[in-house]
């Protein structure tokens, strides 16, 4: 099937940018906060977009949705971020219909992740779909597609070893620290920011470094305390940030701030300090590299650090792709079947009209007419007829492009819209 029309003149698009062409700074320009995502969805609804989901992670920002032209979606993105259309055009991608579907499968299955096999994106897609549904912006097509992608993701995770080794930025950062320091368990580590990446990094630090000198700081202290309690860690006030940085050997920054929160002026220590910036937009000012004792590593650097399991994971790509093809075929089969639903619905409605008119006639002509029995028999006949036509349309042996038009012509049905 070449086109996926939910309503006349619209197609399914995937527009966005990722680590492949856009560096951390550019990705930061197009990063969406939770509030800006809601604003974008509200604007989409106002603009007549009927179904759309939005994702924004550390390595990509994407919109999947139906539009007459992809620029409608690009404009929504640019108007709700700090990015411009000119910037977008230089690094972006636009996929339509079949290519957009394939792209979502690759993204959700970890094959398009910055670190191969990173499945964290699938939870982002689930959350995005849930938010869109709450806003009334999730049609049956995208909802079914998301569920198919989730199914493929689960199968790939359980049936292949593509997720062995470091498969997330949070684990890759801990792996980097462990390779850099022999005595990492004795180093003072400060984690600033306890969002999703911060929480995952914290969990990996505790699990793999056996370090008992980990301190957490978050603007909202309660969030840090909730995580610290789980792992028996130290929590300090945001007001103590500079003091704690200067007492640390390793600083991990994973905040959701839109501007840098760390720069060279708050670093007063002379001892060696490793800073890992896991944030998009960047939360550590590049000017910290002017300090000879500071080493700055960004998440884009971490993704390029390969480990011994990477080649092994690459070997599982063909199997993962075959799983995607299998699930995608099932989705396309549903799609092909679904496009006939309006024709069947219109046929059933027409037959109901015939029935009602005939019952009305017989009611007037026959004394003691058994209306209940006639209604029962008529409905069963209608169901059998519509089922027969439905099976005909689903049968590959017939020309399914011509059949709906023939049914519409014979029964004088209104032209229907594809689903």
Q: What can you tell me about this protein's structure?
A:
With 419 residues, the chain is of the alpha/beta class. It folds into 3 domains: 11-165 and 313-337, 2-Layer Sandwich (Beta Polymerase, domain 2); 169-306, Rossmann fold (3-Layer(aba) Sandwich), CATH 3.40.50; 339-410, no CATH class. It has 17 helices and 10 strands. The protein has a 6-stranded parallel beta sheet. A 4-stranded antiparallel beta sheet has the order 2-3-1-4, sandwiched between helices. α6 runs antiparallel to α7 (140-159), α7 runs antiparallel to α14 (317-338) and α8 packs parallel to α9 (196-209). The chain is elongated and about 105 Å long. The model is unreliable at 396-400 (pLDDT under 50).
């Amino acid at each position: 099937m070449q086109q996926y029309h939910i309503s006349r003149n619209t197609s399914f698009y995937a527009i966005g940018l990722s680590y492949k062409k856009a560096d951390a700074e550019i990705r930061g320009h197009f990063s969406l906060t939770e509030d800006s995502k809601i604003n974008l969805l509200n604007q989409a609804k106002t603009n007549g977009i009927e179904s759309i989901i939005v994702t924004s992670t550390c390595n990509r920002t994407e919109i999947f949705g139906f539009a007459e032209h992809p620029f409608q979606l690009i404009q929504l993105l640019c108007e709700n971020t700090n990015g411009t259309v000119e910037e977008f055009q230089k690094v972006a991608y636009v996929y339509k219909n079949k290519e957009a579907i394939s792209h979502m499968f690759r993204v959700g299955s970890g094959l398009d992740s910055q670190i191969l096999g990173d499945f964290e994106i699938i939870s982002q897609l689930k959350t995005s779909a849930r938010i869109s549904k709450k806003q009334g912006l999730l049609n049956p097509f995208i909802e079914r597609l998301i569920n198919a992608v989730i199914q493929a993701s689960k199968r790939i995770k359980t049936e292949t070893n593509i997720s062995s080794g470091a498969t997330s930025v949070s684990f890759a950062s801990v792996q980097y620290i462990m390779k850099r320091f022999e005595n990492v368990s004795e180093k003072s580590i400060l984690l600033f920011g306890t969002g999703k990446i911060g929480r995952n990094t914290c969990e990996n630090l505790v699990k793999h470094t056996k370090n008992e000198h980990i301190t957490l700081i978050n603007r909202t202290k309660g969030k840090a305390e909730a995580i610290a309690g789980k792992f028996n860690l130290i929590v300090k006030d945001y007001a103590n940030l500079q003091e704690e940085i200067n007492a640390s050997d390793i600083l991990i920054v994973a905040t959701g701030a839109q501007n840098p929160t760390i720069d060279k002026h708050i670093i007063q220590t002379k001892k060696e300090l490793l800073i890992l910036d896991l944030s998009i937009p960047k939360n550590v000012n590049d000017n910290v590299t002017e300090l000879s004792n500071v080493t700055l590593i960004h998440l884009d650097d971490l993704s390029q650090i390969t480990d011994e399991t990477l080649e092994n994971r690459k070997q599982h790509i063909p199997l993962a792709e075959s799983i995607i093809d299998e699930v995608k075929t099932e989705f396309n089969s549903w799609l092909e079947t679904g496009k006939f639903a309006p024709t069947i619905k219109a046929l059933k409605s027409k037959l109901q009209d015939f029935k009602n008119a005939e019952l009305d006639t017989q009611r007037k002509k026959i004394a003691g007419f058994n209306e209940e029995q006639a209604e029962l028999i008529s409905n069963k006949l209608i169901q059998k007829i519509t089922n027969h036509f439905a099976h005909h349309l689903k049968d590959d042996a017939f020309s399914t492009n011509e059949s709906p038009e023939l049914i519409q012509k014979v029964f004088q049905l209104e032209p229907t819209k594809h689903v």
